[in-house]
Amino acid sequence: MTVVAVLLGQESRSQGWPELDARAYALVALSHLPVALRGRRPLAVFAAVQTALIAYVTLGYWPVVCTFGSMLALYTVASVRPVRTALVCAACMAGVWVYAGVVSDTPSMASVLGQALLYCSVLVWFGHLARRSAELTRRLRAEQAERARRAVAEERGRIARELHDVVAHHTSVISVQAGLARFVFDSRPDRARGALGTIADTSGEALEELRRMLQVLREEDPEAPERAPMPTLARLGELADRVRAGGLPVELTVTGTERPLPPGVELCAYRVVQEALTNALRHTGPAHARVELRYGAHELTVRITDDGQGADPARVPAGGGHGLIGMRERAKLYGGTITVGPRSEGGYEVRLTLPTSAERGGTGVAEAER
Predict the structure, then answer these.
(1) Which string of DSSP letters, residue by residue, matches 265-317?
(2) How many CB atoms lie within 10 A of CB 162?
(3) How confident is the model at residue 284 (pLDDT cuts 50, 70, 90)?
(4) Which one, of 350, 344, 270, 244, lies nearest residue 305 by Cα?
């Protein structure tokens, strides 16, 4: 703006005004350079540029040259300060413009007054709209953050309830085996030792599940309906059949040696597959899905892919939706990793890796806690 004002000032003589000298150029700079600080001190900047403009006009120079800085300063005040403050500044600016018309003996004072009122009104109005837009944006971001927080809390509560069922199952096994060991302790020592071994293994798994359960917040729901038994990886075939019935062909493959896994790990993998297939069924359109389970030495890898067109951004809530939040929370809870995104060859992919040993899972829980 300073450069444009200087270039415009060079036309002063052709417009019938005195040619700018060093003093005039200094006032031009003082009328425009302070606007660089308008975001930090809008009122101080407005006062500074208005003061320089008054001095410039009083010395008899062409007033139009020094109007750009004051107009931007007024807009900034209206965009960050209440309407009452903006109106006071607008009245001051309009007064300066009228003063410039009086000093320069302008024959058409009505035109000067009309321009002052028009420009000041437009600047205040657009500044007010910008302020309202900024407030709405901040409010929207706060609401989105609150919805995301509630979604995480609800998902953690559901995970906690499921983990409670896992621990309850382990405790029941321990109770039965302890009663058996006490009953056959004298008559069948080998059977008693086997029961004690089962107790040791089961109690270790139960303690690990308890450690995980303590990482999530649980809200008691006394009116919650009875829950069905928790699904396991052995029921992925049933899940695939239901998805096929819904119109999405699904191929299920398993590599590696299948073996029993901690119930929480199986539940986590099952829920991620369920969520991924549900999203594919909703959003991909005509497509085929593939679910791959790979049993490694110390981890379980689950990969769900489809060859559809992917989710329509207009139909997916901002922030990724509650399903994606739930998948990430589950993976983090069991010390695993999950990646979700489109494939280069088309379609969508969800890849989950879960440690199957208690030590690694516990480390993941500790990291999640940190």
Answers:
(1) HHHHHHHHHHHHHHHHHHHS-S--EEEEEEE-SSEEEEEEEE-S----GGGSP
(2) 20
(3) low
(4) 350
CA distances from 9 to 2, 28, 34, 186, 205 (A): 10, 9, 19, 110, 83
Residue 247 dihedral angles phi and psi, to the nearest 5° = 110, 5
E strand or H helix that includes residue 250: strand 250-255
Count of residues in the chain: 370
DSSP H or E segment with residue 153: helix 109-184
Is residue 178 within 8 A of residue 195, CB to CB? The reply is yes
The DSSP bridge pattern shows strands 250-255 and 289-295 to be parallel
Q: In what order do the strands lie in the sheet with 337-342?
A: 250-255, 289-295, 299-306, 348-355, 337-342
Q: What is the DSSP letter of 341?
A: E
Largest pairwise CA distance in the chain: 122
The encoded tokens of residue 88 equal 């006071």
Q: Concatenated DSSP letters for 65-95?
A: GG-HHHHHHHHHHHHHS-HHHHHHHHHHHHH
CA angle 145, 150, 154 (to 5 degrees): 150
| Residue 82, token pair as written in the block | 């209440």
H or E stretch at 214:
none
Tell me the pLDDT tens digit for each residue of 37-80. 998 899 999 999 999 999 998 888 888 888 899 999 999 999 99
Tell me the pLDDT tens digit for each residue of 78-123: 999 999 999 999 999 999 888 888 887 777 888 888 888 999 999 9
End-to-end, the C-alpha distance of the chain in Å comes to 51
Question: Looking at this protein, which amino acid is placed at residue 254?
Answer: V
Q: How many CB atoms are located within 10 Å of the residue 357 CB?
A: 14
At residue 229 the predicted structure's pLDDT band, cuts being 50, 70 and 90, is low
Strand partners, 291: 252, 304
Cβ–Cβ under 8 Å, residues 169 and 209: no
Q: Which residue has the tokens 């399903």?
A: 323
Exposure on the CB side of residue 4, measured as CA atoms within 13 A: 8
